[in-house]
Amino acid sequence: MNKVMVGIILGAILGALDGMTAWFTPAARPGIVGIVFGSTIKGIIAGILIGVFARKVHSLALGIVFGLGVGLFLAFIIAQLQHGYYLQIMLPGGMVGLIVGYATQKYGRAPELQNAASVR
Amino acid sequence: MKWLGDGTVDRLRANMQVPDLSGTRYRAIRFLASGGMAEIWLAEDTVLKRNVALKVLDANDSPDLASRLLREAHILAALEHPGIVPIHDAGTLADGRVFYCMKYVEGLRLDDFLTRVPALADRLRLLLRIAEPLAFAHSRGIIHRDLKPENVMVGPFGEVLIMDWGLGKAFEKSAEASIGAPALAALRDTPERMIELITNHGSVLGTPGYMAPEQWQGEVARMDQRTDVYGLGAILSFMTSDDRQSETRVPRPISAISSKAMHSDPSRRYSSVEAFTADITKYLADSPVSAYRESLLERLARVFNRHRTAVILIAVYLLMRLLFILFSRR
Q: pLDDT digit string (tens) for A36-61?
């Protein structure tokens, strides 16, 4: 699977999971669908950005740092819109970015290898 | 009358053994090693000004041994591969001894080199490189039949070379297409050659512990690439059971790979060197190997090992989420 696709799928799954945990916060339950949807979109956007980065830069360390940065940045925007919950939103958001950054570098296939495999 | 001293006698004896290289382009430098039928000398190629190794038949030679040395030369000539020592020249010396000239490899024998390679994974990678020239030879229809650590050299730059193809044999028809009919005729086992292989000095040629059962039983018809797979399994067993490795338990998949490669029934061994190396490669990649059926617990442990960082990251993430949920409920 190519790096961008790994980023999109993992970002969507972890983003949705991230959003679903809002169900455990009674005050957030009424808007759970919107939260899950928004969180999933956020995860997909992060996945695309991190996946594209991983295609350009082949470095596990840089991929992790970039993923962490993207995750924190997007979570910061969400927290700004929420006017609070910075720690509760940014910490998991950063963690999701870090995991996606690691996974795209580690498990995503580079374009050259894909081409070689398709030639076979 | 004056008696000769021990030193003088030794020098005279050494001089008698020096091959007569007159009329050739080589100049003997020093004795390197001795095998069952031949000596190996370090020599200088006076034309190209480089050191080479000369394999010269023992002084007390025989026509059978001479033809065997020439067979080995034919095999080396037929197999051009970075993992097989290249032959430069072959012929007969002024003293009647058959010889061939090959590249002089400065390195260590595998058994000596392994003292520098304590990690199992590194040893397995080394084994994969030993298998490469062997797979090449098999693709040309030739088997080695004397694989053992003493016949593998590791050069100063890590290059791996398989030596001593004296027991080599053409084992299938494809050999004719790849090496040519005249060379093939010299590599086939004739009845006379089999007598030589089996009854020379009342013993089978080969090395106990590394010889496949069909080899020491003299069943020529059953010898094929799986005979060498047995030798590779024996080398794997050696690599994992020497002093440095004995402190740690040999992983079960590796023991299983070794056992499968060394099965007494050739049909139950790996069918080829490639199949053997595929299992080693899978083991190195933390993937399941064909030779070993793992339990659920072992499978989980292997998957964890393979994806250790990802599993830890996700576990940390889930733990953090759990903590957030618990604290948000207070």
A: 998 899 899 999 999 999 999 989 99
pTM, 2 dp: 0.73
ipTM > 0.85 for the complex: no
Is residue A21 within 8 angstroms of chain B, CB to CB?
Answer: yes
Residue B6 known to be catalytic = no
Which among B70, B104, B138 is the end of a domain?
B104
Contact flag A24-B310 (C-beta cutoff 8 Å)? no
B145 is a domain residue: yes
B311-325 confidence digits (pLDDT tens): 999 899 889 888 888
**Nearest-angstrom CA–CA distance, B25 and B6:** 33
Is B329 exposed, middle or buried, given 0-12, 13-18 or 19+ CB atoms closer than 10 A? Answer: exposed
Instruction: Give me the residue from A24, A95, A107 closest to B320, CB to CB.
Output: A95
A-chain CB neighbours of B320 within 8 Å are 91-92, 95
Task: Flag whether B109 is in a domain.
Answer: no
Question: Of B104, B139, B172, at which residue does a domain stop?
Answer: B104
CB within 8 Å: B314 and A21: no
Looking at the structure, do residues B181 and B43 belong to the same domain, yes or no?
no
